[in-house]
Design a protein that fits this description.
Length: 442
């Protein structure tokens, strides 16, 4: 009797061991194939750099990967279907969740490959033109595309600026008494004592704000307290200068020991004082110095140095670009202008002296917003005869004192708040530190 019981226990343990081995085998069948997916993606990336490594046609790699992914999807369902139907509900739920995870993983990988290398080039164009026009993310683009592919996209999307010096005689500061069109009416119809007027727009489904500043002598450049070393939020810079309104200014990069955007690109002048005069970031963007002269005219200066700017009577200025309109002539823009779609900030001046400050939102995935063509069209519609792109992306903000900001947003707990909706690199709805702003003073 004891022998029989002992035998039964042994049999039961054998069943458990076999069952465990069977489950382990099934788990390996489910998971091991997934380890090959990153390898296949890497092979796809490598194949696009055929001049360096493996000369495999990209389309063949895509077809192979999609076929294997489809096979893995069928395999995962087949394994679950073959499982014992008498399992507990808890284990069944786990299997379903695991299958859903595998499916989502496969679809995600396939979607990424399709976006990066598929027949529709809209994502590819956006990704390359956006990445290659940032200071610190160009290497990401080069992970996925060869120099040949990058150059092909850049050649199909660029901005050709007007090669002329700014003619300040075109600005006569005479206020119009009649409205030539609806845009003129929006700009000129205002309260008599208003320092500025904000016009709300929509650009590619995104909110935008255009500020018409009626006294150009009030438009100046303000900098962070630690310019050259660290940046500050535009709200803080505006508060420090008791500004009526502020937008972000020119291009910049992080200082080596501080990641808050403290180093302005090129020439920076504030209230007649030269803040920076360098050729920093010589992977140089188009454009140049965007300045206000002592006679309150916006000038756009190519190949600017501080000496050249001072000789042209510049009292305030930042460096960035491209220049969108010069002397009433619009830059030639092919495709998206080579900058992709993003949150944007721009500045312009009409012939009557009114300064235009524009900000355009982007969406949470940073795939919408404005390109250079959109900025040029808006500035032209509202009468700008000179206009330029300022820094954009996460930096894009329009800042107002709390009382005014609450007219455009539901909450503002600080003394100054931005009224647009900036999105940072982590897709959070917040801005970042910057070294320069364009402000409207009291």
């Amino acid at each position: 009797m004891k022998d029989n019981n002992y035998t039964e226990i042994l049999d039961f343990n054998d069943i458990k061991v076999n069952h465990h081995k069977k489950n382990k085998k099934r788990f390996l069948l489910r998971t091991l194939p997934l380890l090959f997916i990153p390898i296949l993606i890497c092979l796809t990336i490598i194949s696009t750099h055929s001049n360096r490594l493996i000369p495999i046609p990209v389309n063949y790699i895509i077809y192979i990967i999609l076929s294997l992914l489809f096979y893995l999807l069928l395999l995962s369902f087949f394994i679950i279907k073959k499982d014992d139907s008498k399992k507990s509900k808890k284990k069944k739920i786990k299997k379903i969740l695991f299958t859903l995870f595998i499916t989502a993983y496969i679809i995600g990988c396939a979607s990424l490959i399709f976006l990066l290398y598929g027949p529709n080039d809209k994502f590819r164009t956006w990704f390359i033109s956006t990445s290659m026009n940032t200071m610190s993310h160009q290497y990401i683009c080069k992970w996925f595309y060869s120099d040949k592919e990058i150059n092909k996209v850049i050649k199909g999307n660029y901005t050709k600026e007007i090669e002329e010096d700014t003619d300040t005689d075109l600005i006569d500061m005479q206020e119009e008494e009649t409205y030539a069109n609806e845009y003129e009416k929006q700009i000129l119809k205002r309260d008599k004592d208003a320092a500025y007027k904000i016009i709300e727009l929509e650009v590619n489904g995104q909110k935008a704000y255009l500020a018409a500043v009626y006294d150009p002598s009030k438009v100046k450049v303000a900098v962070s307290n630690g310019v050259g070393r660290y940046g500050q939020y535009a709200t803080k810079i505006a508060e420090n200068n008791q500004a009526l309104l502020a937008v972000n200014g020119g291009g910049f990069s992080n200082a080596p020991d501080n990641q808050t955007g403290g180093r302005p690109t090129g020439v920076t002048i504030s209230n007649g004082k030269v803040i920076t005069d360098n050729t920093y970031s010589a992977d140089a963007q188009s454009g140049g110095l965007i300045g206000m002269t002592y006679d309150n005219k916006l000038v756009l200066i190519k190949n600017a140095t501080a000496y050249k700017a001072k000789s042209m009577n510049v009292r305030d200025g930042v460096s960035w670009g491209p220049f969108l309109i010069v002397n009433g002539k619009k830059s030639f823009i092919k495709g998206n202008g080579g900058w992709g779609y993003a949150a944007r900030t721009a500045i312009g001046q009409r012939s009557d002296g009114i300064i235009l400050l524009l900000v355009v939102n982007s969406n949470s995935t940073r795939t919408k917003g404005a390109d250079m063509g959109d900025l040029t069209e808006i500035m032209s519609n509202y009468g700008a005869i000179n206009a330029a792109n300022l820094d954009g992306g996460t930096s894009t903000v329009m800042v107002l004192p709390k009382e005014e900001a609450l007219k455009y947003k539901s909450d503002c707990t600080d003394n100054y708040c931005y009224i647009n909706d900036p999105v940072d690199s982590a897709l959070r709805h917040k801005t970042r530190g910057i070294p320069t702003t364009v402000i409207v003073t009291k």
